[in-house]
Amino acid sequence: xxxxxxxxxxxxxxxxxxxxxxxxxxxxxxxxxxxxxxxxxxxxxxxxxxxxxxxxxxxxxxxxxxxxxxxxxxxxxxxxxxxxxxxxxxxxxxxxxxxxxxxxxxxxxxxxxxxxxxxxxxxxxxxxxxxxxxxxxxxxxxxxxxxxxxxxxxxxxxxxxxxxxxxxxxxxxxxxxxxxxxxxxxxxxxxxxxxxxxxxxxxxxxxxxxxxxxxxxxxxxxxxxxxxxxxxxxxxxxxxxxxxxxxxxxxxxxxxxxxxxxxxxxxxxxxxxxxxxxxxxxxxxxxxxxxxxxxxxxxxxxxxxxxxxxxxxxxxxxxxxxxxxxxxxxxxxxxxxxxxxxxxxxxxxxxxxxxxxxxxxxxxxxxxxxxxxxxxxxxxxxxxxxxxxxxxxxxxxxxxxxxxxxxxxxxxxxxxxxxxxxxxxxxxxxxxxxxxxxxxxxxxxxxxxxxxxxxxxxx
Amino acid sequence: xxxxxxxxxxxxxxxxxxxxxxxxxxxxxxxxxxxxxxxxxxxxxxxxxxxxxxxxxxxxxxxxxxxxxxxxxxxxxxxxxxxxxxxxxxxxxxxxxxxxxxxxxxxxxxxxxxxxxxxxxxxxxxxxxxxxxxxxxxxxxxxxxxxxxxxxxxxxxxxxxxxxxxxxxxxxxxxxxxxxxxxxxxxxxxxxxxxxxxxxxxxxxxxxxxxxxxxxxxxxxxxxxxxxxxxxxxxxxxxxxxxxxxxxxxxxxxxxxxxxxxxxxxxxxxxxxxxxxxxxxxxxxxxxxxxxxxxxxxxxxxxxxxxxxxxxxxxxxxxxxxxxxxxxxxxxxxxxxxxxxxxxxxxxxxxxxxxxxxxxxxxxxxxxxxxxxxxxxxxxxxxxxxxxxxxxxxxxxxxxxxxxxxxxxxxxxxxxxxxxxxxxxxxxxxxxxxxxxxxxxxxxxxxxxxxxxxxxxxxxxxxxxxxxxxx
Lengths: 459, 471
Prior knowledge:
The complex is a heterodimer. Chain A has helices spanning 10-13, 37-49, 102-109, 128-134, 141-144, 178-182, 216-228, 241-248, 275-288, 300-311, 313-317, 336-349, 376-395, 414-417, 420-433; strands spanning 6-7, 30-32, 54-57, 74-77, 84-88, 93-97, 114-115, 151-157, 163-167, 191-198, 200-201, 205-213, 235-240, 262-270, 293-296, 323-326, 329-330, 353-359, 364-371. Chain A is α+β, with helices and mostly antiparallel strands. Among the domains of chain A are: 87-201, Uridine Diphospho-n-acetylenolpyruvylglucosamine Reductase, domain 3 (2-Layer Sandwich), CATH 3.30.465; 205-310, Alpha-Beta Plaits; 321-406, Alpha-Beta Plaits, CATH 3.30.70.2740. In chain A, a hairpin with a 4-residue loop joins strand 18 and strand 19. In chain A, helix 7 crosses helix 9 and helix 12 packs antiparallel against helix 13 (376-395). The two termini of chain A are 31 Å apart. Chain B folds into three domains: 88-206, Uridine Diphospho-n-acetylenolpyruvylglucosamine Reductase, domain 3; 210-311, 2-Layer Sandwich (Alpha-Beta Plaits), CATH 3.30.70.2190; 320-438, Alpha-Beta Plaits (2-Layer Sandwich), CATH 3.30.70. Chain B is 32% helix and 22% strand. Chain B has 14 helices and 19 strands. Chain B has helices at 2-12, 42-55, 106-114, 132-138, 145-148, 151-154, 183-187, 222-232, 271-288, 302-311, 331-350, 401-420, 432-438, 448-458, and strands spanning 18-19, 35-37, 59-62, 78-81, 88-92, 97-101, 118-119, 155-162, 167-171, 195-203, 205-206, 210-218, 238-245, 261-269, 297-300, 320-325, 379-384, 389-394, 424-429. In chain B, the strands form four sheets. Chain B has an eight-stranded antiparallel β-sheet. In chain B, strands 5-6-10-8-9 form a five-stranded antiparallel β-sheet, sandwiched between helices. In chain B, strands 1-2-4-3 form a four-stranded mixed β-sheet, covered by helices on one side. In chain B, a hairpin with a 4-residue loop joins strand 17 and strand 18. The longest helix of chain B is centred in the last third of the chain and has 20 residues, at 331-350. The radius of gyration of chain B is 23 Å and the shape is globular. The two termini of chain B are 28 Å apart. At the A-B interface, strand 9, helix 6, helix 7 and helix 15 of A face strand 9, helix 7, strand 11, helix 9 and helix 14 of B.
């Protein structure tokens, strides 16, 4: 590959010691930056042959500590694999290298009247390959669904260096959906080097509303009313009081009233006809639920302004304390009010500040805990509170992560949702792809190295 | 051995779970299973599978047993049906999700959700007679996949009993869930090769206020391909774009004289959206594409739904159904391939080998009267335009060994041509000898090794789908 693309200088490795979850850094032994499937295959083959752990990494924007070398080894970075190989508007598809940025893909499709639907908050920085690894979501999956729905084919380098093509052509064959299994496998099954995606037509029109409520409960009732009326917004997003305060005190101030209990962003898109009616109905739902104010964006600049308080929420929270734990969990939508109340209780009990941002339409919560990691007592309280929050979500039929992944951070919560038999089966699946256990080790599954479990079948 | 199997099952299961052989209508050429059982609970299902795995009984998981031949021939000692697991166990309309036993009849589910103005937008062939579990296990989809996605996009979680009797729950009833590997998606479309799916959670959608199908008719499918493609690629929110020839295969009264082919454009949404789409289809698109709007029909609401229900029975009683897939832009050449195949079969038929009077008995879902078969044209075509899938139905498959071999050769050659352009050819249903010869689908690449490994993980004794699944 050329020695300049193999990094081993400790200073240069610092960049790769963590992803967006910065609390537990692990510098890798080396970083390699290949440019093609063939190079990735050769690198994987060599590392596999020497039993050296491999950590696939896109842009490192992940929030679960998935792209870090927590067991040592070599990071395979995809930052040089940025070519769009085919743009095929006639078939509404594109083929790209895994290092293409999410937002770059959409920009490239726009001249053809198309775009790539999944839009995680980090879309200007995150790569498509990373999105595949995490099965990323975003604020618009209520209507459009998550990454998996838009991935139609993957070229994958398996942990031992073999290259396979998964999916393509609408999966007409009655075989296993390996494509669906690979998406969201967090780098444990190999590296997807080329990605075929489905593109969708740009919506003709968009209507964006911002409703301000005195309480979070009222905002929750508005969401239920909107869904119950048979409306399907493209997005339904809530930010709570603490988040509003943080945003308004920051450089990202979006003009949300600081005494509000919650702000709800509702967005409809699609054919122009009918959008006005949908927006009017949603406005009525909000008012009936007690909204003190409903604003509708009249221009795209106004639309961006309404979204600003939501999209910049995480950035703004940096003001509240040195460290921020961005949590992620999902509950059935109707259980949101009770879970939010429970999260408030838990935070209070542990004397922590929690700021909630969530995809209300999907029941996907992001309770964010602000703390100072130099304070060991507070750090411990954050960990305990996190565990209780996860348990509370699981107790009402929810799960421990909706879009950020398990990574290294959430392995400890896995037994909350999976029985020992299920964890065993997940481990078995992993061994089918990676019998040696060197592809992103120490991620997803709770501590239980494969080598300590002799006598299991391998392919 | 047979008596032992029946006795052992009798110990595990209550009497009502042991079904008489008459409940299953076996496809031609099948060896009857020793027993057909329908456990009445999850633990019973687990007990049966655990015992079967230990004893090496070969098992075929099944739903309501309406389509046992789907997927090709299979060797089974025991058919394990979910027909006694049929409750809607959880349904919270405001969550737009539900959980139901796998054996719940589709009709029951559809009615329950309709009462809350919601639906599960799936319409695979024959789904109306089958169970929820069958749709999930086959992963099958119909015209609606273009707009809504297929089962893999709607199923949120499954409970399954693995091939060796482990009860495993994957996913849940939340829309976004990335905890652990996505075994739910692996299970969807696995045809029961990993185990018996006993319960399914899926997401629902608001039932559209209005449902409109615009039917544009012309003498042949070729006359409509251009319009079909431009419609499928327009930003209009069609929920399905289907090209049919003859349209009489769906509903005889829609075929008039020379107008044998039809393009069915379905729009489902709010009153305002549907009205707008209707205007634009006629004003902008038809005039621009030079299609005579005079030949168009409008099927509204219940008529539109009835039309698509009838379309879902298009494969019923058709002895041979092929699915040709390609990128949508290659549709014209795929249609040409289908025509050439028809022509070769017809030429071959003149030389003997096709005998109309010797039609095989019905294959597939065969409940109640379906569209008339055997009269009119010999072949039928239905294309999911936006998906690039062409279905070719053949009423008179070859009857002799010679003719079968010739057709098999033609199909293999066609498959090769399609695959070289990134497409596929699969046989949805057909005479056993032909399916054996051609294979349900093309060869799986090196990833077959991964598939075999996954089967071993879930079914270490290798008792599921003996002789059927592709790997």
